[in-house]
Amino acid sequence: MAKLPFGKNFMHIKKSTEGTSNEISFSVLDAKKNSSEDSAANSPRTLSELGKVSLFTMPGKQSGEAAPTASGFGMGRAAKMKSPQISSGGATLGGSAEVMVRKQRRRVLKVLNVAAVLAVLGVLVFFGGRAVVNFMERQETSQHALDESIALLEKTDAAFVALDEAIAAPAESNQEQYDQVMVDLSAAASRLDRAANSAEQVIAAQDNSELVEAAASVKESAMARKDLIEKGRTVLVTGSAAKMATELVEQAWAKALEGDELARQAATLLAEDQAKNLEESTKLSTQAMEAFQVALDLVRQAKEAFPRADYSALENYLGMRASAQHNALASNAAIQEQDRAIAEANSAAYNESEEEAAKIAAELPANPAQPVVDRYAEIGGASDQAYQDARARAARADAEIRAFLGED
Fold first, then answer.
1. Is 185 strand, coil or helix?
2. What does the pLDDT look like over 156-187, one tens digit per residue?
3. Backbone angles phi, psi at 206, to 5 degrees
4. pTM as predicted
5. In terms of Cα–Cα distance, which of 259, 329, 319 is closest to 290?
6. Cβ pair 79, 55 in contact under 8 A
7. CA distance 202 to 267
8. Cα maximum dimension of the chain
9. What is the pLDDT of residues 35-79, one digit of tens each?
């Protein structure tokens, strides 16, 4: 049992009081009483006289004496010296009563001191027990918050797996898959915010160092995953735009080849028999011009989807081919109307446009979408690296959480 927080002399009941200055010695009182009994026989006023004469009207009272009280403690020192008979009897009775009162007082004080000690101990036990209960409740609350934050992290795993797959193999993903990944990432971001908030509650409570350390790892993982979402979105958006632009350019080039074939057929028919094949040649030239215009529209859509690539060479080429067919149609119309001058002027413009288009075509890459691919590689490299950095950060935090859970 722990020692009481008091000194050894806090309650000093003395075993022997004889000869001390602050206590009435029982041995001195006894000696004094014995001596007074010897002289009391010759005293004219004995204790038996108390029944005859009132203490309050004691005869023979000298001037200046103090009247005694009913208890016998009103006697002054001057009165004792002038009347030894009265003072000796009074001292004997008064001293015994005073000792009893003091003994009772000491017992009361002792009881009160013990009660005070017990009261203090009770208060300490009460508040100590309450503190333990509060601490355990806070521990339980922190553990619950930590478990909740880890569960929220786990619910975002599937979204990040899909994100990884989409980024690792963009050619195998379509726009519908990209859109679904984006929706899942938005839901994951909301869960990550909640996970970070729950972890922050544990960190702020500071109730258990192990829980605080685990909560810090959870918060770090949540923040790293949010950063991963942002970096992943950039990669996906950029990749999706580049992929769409590439597909549009490939469609445009397919239309351009279709228009080129129609233009060749129209020119051949007109060269073989102008009068006989004029109408058929006009029909083919019209189809060729429409094909080139469709191809040009597709290139412009690609430019809107991924504006960072350079489409100018392809646009100029398709524009020249469409313009050449427009001149061919104008020439055929003039021939039909037998307007030689207009027919020759439009025929010259046709040839000029075709020659210019041929020069541009000679400078085009084997893959018309190469400008898109090159530009995506240039700007996408930085985005990919940022994504990989955020991914590594999240992986480190996740490893710490698994270690806390004992899963490693």
1. helix
2. 999 999 998 888 876 666 778 888 998 999 99
3. 55, 40
4. 0.59
5. 259
6. no
7. 81
8. 184
9. 544 544 444 443 333 333 333 333 444 444 444 433 332 333 444
